[in-house]
Amino acid sequence: MAEPGTAGLFLGQSTEREELLFNRVNRHGVVAGATGTGKTVTLQIMAQGFSDAGIPVFCADVKGDLSGICQPGTPNEKLLARAAGMDLTLKPAAAPTVFWDLYGEKGHPVRATVSEIGPLLLARMLDLNDVQEGVLAVVFHVADKEGLLLLDLDDLRSLLTYVAENAQTIGREVGNVAPASIAAIQRSLLQLEQQGGKAFFGEPALRLEDMIRTGLDGRGQVNVLAADRLMSSPRLYAAFLLWLMSELFEQLPEIGDPEKPRLVFFFDEAHLLFNDAPRALQEKVEQVVRLIRSKGVGVYFVTQNPADIPDSVLGQLGNRIQHALRAYTPADQRGLKAASQSFRPNPAFDTAEAIQSLGVGEALVSTLNEKGAPRVVARTLIRPPDSRLGPATETERAAVMAQSPVRGVYEQVIDRESAEEILVARHAASDRVAAEAAAAEAEARAEDAAEKAADKAGAAAEKAERARARSAPHAAPKARRSTRQTPMEALTKSVLRTAGSTLTRELLRGVLGGLRRR
């Protein structure tokens, strides 16, 4: 790998030793070639070589083969013969490896919060159109304005509901928020969850310092992301690696051109990053690749054909390793031509023909010299690795994880108060206030109804009383006394009647004509 006292990583043998200078590693590079031509072995050699030089590495294990880097190699006769032809003595050794896995199955869980991912990358994950991406940006704006933490997908879903319920108020400030766009984002979130994306969002979020480690023996930590299952969700895979690269760019301080980088980042299946990517995303990738080298980070894209990478990004990749390509179709031929033209030509052979005739374990190599200029392309026999060719067993992987420096740090999920809990509390408080107001209103209505009922009852009672008064019978007459008279009563009444009649006549006359004298 990296020989003690040397200034570069030994890649293989051409007419001379082909090395990648450590002080030019942060000028980035590309490892290309058709399936089965040896790209993964080259990546393994480079990763272990950087580790031996004290440089931490991050790489994705797309097929599972790269996991063998954690075990010492057992070279066969063919590999020993190849090493001898390079005047190289193989020393079987394992690299200090830490396994990571977004799903937490084959490595330590890797998480990031929704807020950290941001609307641009999340829109890429969800495959949103321009209008839906704009609505998602509004959702993030509301979260920032109201201090709502977006940690996981439940938080985002709750905030989407909140924005939909307050669309008119929010729309007056930031523009129309269509319910159809909110519904489309909700459906895309459901699809992302069904692909296993929910496990990626949350806390504890990945800390970069847990990846950029150097052991007591001076070797850099090799971080291997288990990506065999993740590849079934290519947008999630690409967005995660781009997020990690952008986090390195945002968090690491400027150090200029160091003697050796502080981290080397391998982006396997790089074409997934650019397939159907919007222009804004491509511009962001170009910006990160161009500027991250001053942070001491080298980025190496691993893909089948350099034509998979946009020219604006490909132009930033100074170190190039090209394995064999097969030109069976017109599109393959165009890719072959583009690949051959990206090298500084060697008068000893035709580059395009050489690319097609390369065998397994061979590559065309062109790295930067001390002045930063590309060397003439050389047909190179890639050196054998010191670690195992092939995957590690489940038992070996478990043993490596048990000795990991981050064992137990990320396994337990943390669910602190965030947007979902805050919005639920707001809804509960609003419901409670509404319930209290409704109860008060109902009580007031009940009191008013009772008062009206009492008034009505009083009026009815008064009316009934008047009716009873009108319908009551008159007082009964006094009992008649008997008219039968005793003889004495009859005699007395006769005398009095005679006297009364005389007196009445006299008085009457006197009254009528003057009182008459006798």
Summarize the structure.
This protein has 518 residues and is α/β, with parallel strands linked by helices. The chain has 16 helices and twelve strands.
Label this structure with key terms.
11% strand, 16 helices, 12 strands, 518 residues, disordered C terminus, alpha/beta
Structural write-up:
The protein is of the alpha/beta class and 518 residues long. Helix content is 46%, strand content 11%. It is built from 16 helices and twelve strands. It has helices at residues 39-52, 77-85, 114-126, 130-145, 153-165, 167-174, 179-194, 234-251, 271-274, 279-291, 311-314, 330-341, 351-357, 394-402, 419-471, 487-513; strands at residues 8-13, 17-21, 29-32, 57-61, 97-101, 108-109, 222-226, 263-268, 297-303, 319-322, 362-366, 378-382. The chain has a twelve-stranded mixed sheet with strand order 2-1-12-11-10-3-9-8-4-7-5-6, sandwiched between helices. Helix 5 runs antiparallel to helix 7.
Q: Strand order across the biggest sheet?
A: 2-1-12-11-10-3-9-8-4-7-5-6
Percent of sequence in beta strands: 5-15%
Mean pLDDT: 88
The shape is: elongated
Described by its quaternary structure, the protein is single chain
Main sheet, how many strands, which sense, barrel? 12 strands, mixed
SSE pattern, N- to C-terminal: EEEHEHEEHHHHHEHEHHEHEHHEEHHH
Amino- and carboxy-terminal Cα gap: 183 Å
Label the structural class: alpha/beta
Helical proportion? 40-55%
Number of helices: 16
Rounded Rg: 49 Å
Uncertain regions spanning at least 5 consecutive residues = 502-518
Strand segment count:
12
